[in-house]
UniProtKB/TrEMBL annotation:
PROSITE patterns the UniProt entry points to: LUMAZINE_BIND
Ranges for domain Lumazine-binding: 1-97, 98-194
CDD domains according to UniProt: Riboflavin_synthase_like
Gene3D superfamilies according to UniProt: 2.40.30.20
Lineage, broadest ranks: Bacteria, Pseudomonadati, Pseudomonadota, Gammaproteobacteria, Pseudomonadales
Annotated Lumazine-binding repeat ranges: 1-97, 98-194
Domain of life: Bacteria
Listed name of the protein: Riboflavin synthase
InterPro entries, per the entry: ATP_synth_asu-like_sf (IPR023366), Lumazine-bd (IPR001783), Lumazine-bd_dom (IPR026017), Riboflavin_synthase-like_b-brl (IPR017938)
Length: 206
């Protein structure tokens, strides 16, 4: 379980691909891997991965082809930065909203607006997933818990303050990039329940 509060950025050092599996070697900032154990869960751009090996501040993760297909992990290359969050522990402050680290879909960055002292990002999700996106609702984008601003069809925006831009990969995001999306679980449950009662559109095909 995760909170959606990104703890920092890590750098992809190496990717080793074999049939059906890719291994990511990711270098973390100093002191951010203390007490990490093999088998621990870490969210990389919002995707829950399991630590398989450690070499100092470099952690290794395996991702199956299905994971690469359903997330943006397959787009990563050595040198790319990623958001990370270690799994939440009992007693941790929940500053965002609870996340599972299971990505529902991806979205494309369709516009970037840069007014003074903040940035507004517009995303486009596949049409079936728009039914879960509401103004002022929660959403996780690349592992960051964010509040949805405006919604226009299957497009929505979020407003980011300078600290968010500094502490996450959103500071270098570009138009056309893909991001991982995890829908708020409570919102999904409510919408799907209403759909079963005939008050909404059919659930998306998975």
């Amino acid at each position: 379980m995760f909170t959606g509060i990104v703890q920092g950025m890590a750098v992809v050092e190496e990717i080793t691909a074999v049939t059906g599996l890719s291994t990511f070697a990711i270098r973390f900032p100093e002191n951010s891997t203390e007490n990490v154990t093999i088998g621990a869960s870490v969210a990389i751009n919002g995707t829950c991965l399991t630590v398989t090996r450690q070499d100092g501040n470099t952690l290794f993760f395996d991702a199956m082809q299905e994971t690469l297909k359903l997330t943006t992990l397959g787009d990563l290359e050595p040198g790319h930065s990623v958001n990370f969050e270690r799994a939440a522990r009992i007693g941790d402050e929940i500053g965002g909203h609870l996340l599972s680290g299971h990505i529902h879909t991806t979205a494309n960055v369709v516009d970037i607006i840069r007014p003074e002292n903040n940035v507004t990002l517009w995303f486009e999700v596949p049409e079936p997933w728009a039914r879960y996106i509401f103004a002022k609702g929660y959403i996780a984008i690349n592992g960051a818990s964010l509040t949805i601003g405006e919604v226009d069809g299957n497009r929505f925006n979020v407003h980011l303050i300078p600290e968010t831009l500094r502490a996450t990969t959103f500071g270098t995001i570009e138009k056309g990039m893909r991001v991982n999306i995890e829908i708020d679980s409570q919102t999904q449950t409510i919408v799907d329940t209403l759909a079963r009662l005939g008050y909404n559109r059919p659930a998306p095909a998975l």
